[in-house]
């Protein structure tokens, strides 16, 4: 028997929610693959992917199956007990990466919090209390807890919350000389996104990541890759570090890891993991059976040559068409990114207008993203149908045409 529910509208948001978000005017109610329907029954094509989360689109049968099967078995037991989905998922992540140990949590910020605490603890145990500095990149994004927002290189997110966490230095991204000048024997970790996501879909240069690796080794510092946005197939490899061939000491994953179910992980080696002894860190929901069962299904589907090759093929489809649109309407100077994380850099005439592009796309029944005010971002499902790509980019072109001829 279904319970009568009071109707809610977008206007309710402003009455009942803390105003830290400004959601779009429509409310999505249902999704299937790369299509989404709103309250009014309008159908949209989804190139936003819940901000690089819905890695298999909406209502993927493998994920629905894993979730419902687990839902009928066991939801939660806490970390006083372990559980089968968590152990199986950990094995799968270890088999597929450099990692030997896994810590599960619930969000990207939480995975990074664990990574930064681990880096500080390792340095403390091995070298004493003076080695705690973290070097991060300007324009980087690592989450919104106080520690992670302070490590992130965007002061607009970290200012105005009282005293900052000390021992964090920011250097320009892709500038190896600046990194060299900042790293010292007080550095416990260098933290980088292989592709800066929120900062504008800006890929690291290979020599930069290699140089960061060497600097960390020379200074007994750990290299942390934040792959919350770039991981789980997004780059065309399971993790972007595998594309570069530069192996971090700690890697964080979230967003696509659960395909829409909240889960995150910190991956590392055994010699580092052993510093987080019993009682040093934890989180109630970490390794939750429901979340881990879904993530297991995600990795099973994603980590196959067919899906990963498909990401690269779909990248080419997107890139060619976006470059054509960029040229034809003079709106982009560059289309960059890897796999199905693409950023279109707005030309001078449209600088600061990424939100206008977002709004124009919505009018054409297309969901896209921005990455800051100057970059239009695409982070669709990795299995988005080629026909949906074509139809979605037709809609995008109409939006751009309207906007540029306004
Ligand atoms: C989204 C993101 C985070 C934060 O993840 P949450 O789940 O929102 O806490 C951290 N790092 C990167 C690179 C991200 O893109």
From TrEMBL:
EC number(s) recorded for this UniProt protein: 2.6.1.11
Cofactor: pyridoxal 5'-phosphate
HAMAP family listed in its UniProt record: ArgD_aminotrans_3
InterPro entries the UniProt entry points to: Ac/SucOrn_transaminase_bac, AcOrn/SuccOrn_fam, Aminotrans_3, Aminotrans_3_PPA_site, Class-III_PLP-dep_AT, PyrdxlP-dep_Trfase, PyrdxlP-dep_Trfase_major, PyrdxlP-dep_Trfase_small
Keyword Signal: no
Modified residues (N6-(pyridoxal phosphate)lysine): 255
High-level lineage: Bacteria, Pseudomonadati, Pseudomonadota, Gammaproteobacteria, Pseudomonadales
One Pfam family recorded for the sequence: Aminotran_3
Note, other: May also have succinyldiaminopimelate aminotransferase activity, thus carrying out the corresponding step in lysine biosynthesis.
Name of the protein this chain belongs to: Acetylornithine aminotransferase
Gene3D superfamilies: Aspartate Aminotransferase, domain 1, Type I PLP-dependent aspartate aminotransferase-like (Major domain)
Primary location group: cytoplasm
Positions bound to N(2)-acetyl-L-ornithine: 144, 283
Signal peptide residue numbers: none
Domain of life assignment: Bacteria
Catalytic activity field: N(2)-acetyl-L-ornithine + 2-oxoglutarate = N-acetyl-L-glutamate 5-semialdehyde + L-glutamate
Pathway assigned in UniProt: Amino-acid biosynthesis; L-arginine biosynthesis; N(2)-acetyl-L-ornithine from L-glutamate: step 4/4
């Amino acid at each position: 028997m279904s319970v009568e529910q009071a109707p809610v509208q977008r206007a309710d948001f402003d009455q009942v929610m803390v105003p830290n978000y400004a959601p779009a005017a429509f409310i999505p109610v249902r999704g299937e693959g790369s299509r989404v329907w709103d309250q009014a029954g309008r159908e949209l094509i989804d190139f936003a992917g819940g901000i690089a989360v819905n890695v298999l689109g909406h209502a993927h049968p493998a994920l629905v199956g894993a979730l419902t099967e687990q839902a009928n078995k066991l939801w939660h037991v806490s970390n006083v007990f372990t559980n089968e989905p968590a152990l199986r998922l950990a094995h799968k992540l270890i088999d597929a990466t450099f990692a030997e140990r896994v810590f599960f949590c619930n969000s990207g910020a939480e995975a990074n919090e664990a990574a930064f605490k681990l880096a500080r603890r390792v340095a403390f145990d091995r070298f004493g209390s003076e080695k705690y500095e973290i070097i991060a990149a300007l324009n980087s994004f690592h989450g919104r807890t106080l520690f992670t927002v302070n490590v992130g290189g965007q002061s607009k997110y970290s200012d105005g919350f009282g005293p900052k966490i000390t021992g964090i230095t920011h250097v320009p991204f892709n500038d190896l000389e600046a990194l060299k000048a900042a790293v010292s024997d007080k550095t416990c970790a260098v933290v980088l996104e292989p592709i800066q996501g929120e900062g504008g879909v800006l890929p690291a240069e290979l020599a930069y990541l290699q140089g960061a690796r060497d600097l960390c080794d020379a200074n007994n510092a750990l290299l942390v890759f934040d792959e919350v946005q770039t991981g789980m197939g997004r780059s065309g490899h399971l993790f972007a570090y595998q594309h570069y061939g530069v192996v971090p000491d700690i890697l964080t994953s979230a967003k696509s890891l659960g395909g829409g179910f909240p889960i995150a992980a910190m991956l590392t080696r055994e010699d580092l993991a052993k510093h987080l002894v019993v009682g040093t860190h934890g989180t109630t929901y970490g390794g939750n059976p429901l979340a881990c069962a879904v993530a297991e299904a995600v990795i099973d589907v994603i980590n196959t040559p067919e899906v990963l090759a498909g990401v690269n093929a779909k990248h080419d489809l997107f890139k060619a068409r976006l470059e054509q649109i960029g040229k034809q309407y003079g709106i982009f100077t560059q289309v960059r990114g890897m796999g199905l994380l693409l950023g279109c850099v707005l030309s001078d005439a449209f600088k600061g207008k990424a939100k206008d592009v977002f709004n124009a796309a919505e009018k054409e029944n297309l969901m896209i993203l921005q990455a800051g005010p100057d970059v239009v971002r695409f982070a669709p499902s990795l299995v988005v149908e080629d026909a949906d790509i074509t139809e979605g980019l037709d809609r995008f072109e109409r939006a751009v045409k309207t906007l540029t001829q306004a």
